[in-house]
Amino acid sequence: MDHLKVRELNDRLMMAERAFTDRDGLLGIPWYKHLIYGPSKHNNYGSQSFPGIYDAAKMARSLHSAESWSQVQHEVWRVSRVIKHASLVLSGQLT
């Protein structure tokens, strides 16, 4: 593999990782920007897959309100958006 191809692949991987972040951050802990893995509001010591969805679902299960389930739906939408963005970056459709 030539040097330019390696550079292009590396750039795509870096951009894909950045695509998993959101400037608004996680619900309740906005300084954590990564939507795929990060701390949960309920566990500061380990990381959680899809922490925004996890925290929103945990809250919705305890509150049982339409608004709290709307927040779960919103968090799922946010994650699906960043996954789609990363997919476009990796396929070369977005640079």
From TrEMBL:
The keyword Protease applies. It is an enzyme of class 3 (hydrolase). Its EC number is 3.4.17.21. It comes from the Eukaryota. Residues 2-90 form the Transferrin receptor-like dimerisation domain. The keyword Hydrolase applies. InterPro entries: Peptidase_M28B, TFR-like_dimer_dom, TFR-like_dimer_dom_sf. Transmembrane segments: none annotated. GO terms for molecular function: metal ion binding; metallocarboxypeptidase activity. Keywords: Carboxypeptidase, Glycoprotein, Hydrolase, Metal-binding, Metalloprotease, Protease, Zinc. GO terms for biological process: proteolysis. Its cofactor is Zn(2+). Belongs to the peptidase M28 family. M28B subfamily. PANTHER family: N-ACETYLATED-ALPHA-LINKED ACIDIC DIPEPTIDASE, VACUOLAR PROTEIN SORTING-ASSOCIATED PROTEIN 70. This is Putative glutamate carboxypeptidase II. The lineage of its organism: Eukaryota, Viridiplantae, Streptophyta, Embryophyta, Tracheophyta.
